[in-house]
Amino acid sequence: MNKDIATPVRTKEILAKYGFSLKKSLGQNFLIDPNILRNIISHAGLSEKTGVIEIGPGIGALTEHLARSAGKVVAFEIDGRLLPVLEDTLSPYDNVTIVHQDILEADLLQVMQDHFADYEDVVVVANLPYYVTTPIIMKFLLGKVPVAGMVVMMQKEVADRITAVPGTKAYGSLSIAIQYYMDAEVAMIVPKTVFMPQPNVESAVLRLTRKETAPAKVIDEDFMFVVSRGSFVQRRKTILNNLQSSLPNGKLKKEVILKAFEQIGMDPGRRGETLSIEEFANLSNVLYEDFFEEKKKRQS
Ligand code: SAM
């Protein structure tokens, strides 16, 4: 087996060879501990039949472990300076494709068709650039990209918000948006010392697994997320007060919102953080028609 890229000595050697200076603005904190990488891989359930999408291969530290365990890896890297480095470091592996593109610009459904039509499962595995953690995850989920799961390193605080349960401080619209589609758990907490340079924040690896069935019947998912985001605009306020002022493109009258609460037998004095996903689904379903009715009236 080839020597691991992710050791402090080898990483420094590679960076020096290419005169590469790390860019903080691109979230470039590279992993320099092979044990952490093995641990990440063990949570991803990879086999020859699995395809992997990686975001931000950097100098290839995680990519080579993925290449050893999965059938195929497609890795998106925004920083063109890393292309010659990756060509060099990943030369022993013929099952890796590097795409020089911002992942947020990528046509992921096309990527699935072009690269993974023959694979049983596709998973996302990445040490994410922290500044775009949420947009990246939401791009996969809202874009209905059929990945079976994700094993992703991120800021611990964000992992805590994603996995939070109702009634806790960390619970909010991000928990709801992600847990609507995926089961979420923190797979491990990661010390700063395994990165170069060390980030200022704590890190964690989050494991997301696609839910077999949606937790609730929802008329319009986008609208449910509008309602859940709107319910947390001011956490201390009741949902009633938040929704009265926060729904975009047209407001709902207080009576209409109150009627919706009555219809589903919910106390209008509750705050967003006490509602489960199912309750947000019920609330958004009864508000849905009233909201669009009201909006039409305003526009005519
Ligand atoms: N996988 C490597 C490792 O673990 O050592 C590097 C991870 S580093 C935290 C994040 C990587 O994502 C960097 O290589 C950075 O250039 C890249 N990156 C940042 N923004 C990106 C984007 N929008 N699309 C694709 N790659 C991005």
Task: Name a few traits of the molecule.
elongated; Rossmann fold; 300 residues; alpha/beta; binds S-adenosylmethionine; 2 domains; seven-stranded mixed beta sheet; two-stranded antiparallel ribbon; 12 helices; Helicase, Ruva Protein, domain 3
Write a brief structural summary.
This protein is an alpha/beta fold and 300 residues long.
Count of domain modules? 2
How far do the termini sit from each other?
Answer: 69 Å
Structural class: alpha/beta
Oligomer: single chain
- Please outline the major beta sheet: 7 strands, mixed
Low-confidence stretches: none
CATH architecture of the largest domain: 3-Layer(aba) Sandwich
Order of strands, widest sheet: 4-3-2-5-6-9-7
Principal-axis shape equals elongated
CATH first level of the largest domain = Alpha Beta
Here the CATH topology of the largest domain equals Rossmann fold
Radius of gyration: 22 Å
Encode the helix/strand succession as letters: HEHEHEHEHEHEHHEEEHHHH
The helicity comes to 40-55%
Bound molecules: S-adenosylmethionine
Count of alpha and pi helical runs: 12
| CATH homologous superfamily annotation of the largest domain | Vaccinia Virus protein VP39
**Got a strand count?**
9
Beta strand %: 15-25%
Q: Can you give the mean pLDDT? A: 94
